[in-house]
Design goal:
With 230 residues, the chain is of the alpha/beta class. The protein has a domain of 160 residues: 3-Layer(aba) Sandwich (Rossmann fold), CATH 3.40.50.300. It is built from 8 helices and 10 strands. It has a 6-stranded mixed beta sheet, with helices on both faces. Strand 9 and strand 10 form a beta hairpin. Helix 6 runs parallel beside helix 7.
């Protein structure tokens, strides 16, 4: 049986006396891709904060590659192979595309590997990141995180506000990386079609509880839309 890359077991968490997540369990298998969907306010951001170590739990466990990391800080989880791409297409705007990548590594072979994954960045290496389009900055943000060589990658709303051709490129990269078998992905996404095409299974979160889960793919589209119906 494949070891889980990330597992939340019976997690209850929130802020002060207000609990946002209620007994949530979720598993990302080793070498697999899972999508987490839900409306705004469903608790997705809180779940991510728990997963990366920015928020403690009231009860439950967080396991990373089979190890209990519930009480570990974010930097300790990063050292254990967790990569996180937050919302907002984050970059260092006054630095060039290449300089953004060189913050992680100066090895040209590793940078070339990222340029193979994201060929649109090749002609933008000397351009300041602040002058890139939103889609280009998103690709740069993902590439920079991949340079840390994570075993478990969390992507938070990677398609938000970007053009359809870049959405297709990000989908291609997610599928390509997970097919290699050495990277697991948790994709938090509101674009249901993109999420299901990119991942092998899904969870739907509503009001801090998992209300639906199943196998991904286009065939699950109706089930997910029904689960997310208001």
């Amino acid at each position: 049986m494949t070891e889980s890359a990330l597992e939340l077991v019976g997690v209850t968490a929130g802020y002060g006396r207000s609990m946002v997540l209620h007994d949530v369990s979720l598993t990302v298998p080793g070498g697999g891709a899972v999508s987490l969907m839900g409306h705004n306010g469903a608790g997705k951001t809180t779940l991510l904060r728990v997963a990366v170590g920015l928020l403690g739990v009231r009860s439950g466990q967080v396991l990373l590659n089979g190890e209990d990391v519930t009480k570990q800080r974010p930097n300790a989880r990063v050292k254990r192979g967790l990569g996180y791409v937050p919302q907002g297409q984050l970059s260092f705007p006054q630095m060039t595309t290449l300089e953004n990548l060189q913050l992680v590594t100066t090895r040209q072979s590793e940078i070339d590997e990222m340029l193979d994954l994201f060929p649109a960045l090749t002609g933008l290496l000397s351009r300041r990141a602040g002058l890139l389009s939103g889609g280009q900055r998103q690709q740069l943000s993902i590439a920079r995180t991949l340079l840390t060589k994570p075993k478990m990658l969390i992507l938070d709303e990677p398609t938000e506000g970007i053009q359809p051709n870049v959405v297709a490129e990000i989908e291609r990269v997610i599928v390509e990386l997970t097919q290699r078998g050495d990277l697991s992905v948790l994709l938090v996404e509101q674009h249901v079609g993109f999420a299901l095409r990119s991942t092998g299974s899904y969870y739907v979160l509503e009001s801090g509880r998992v209300t639906s889960s199943g196998t991904g793919g286009e065939g699950a589209l109706g089930d997910v839309r029904a689960a997310m119906a208001v």
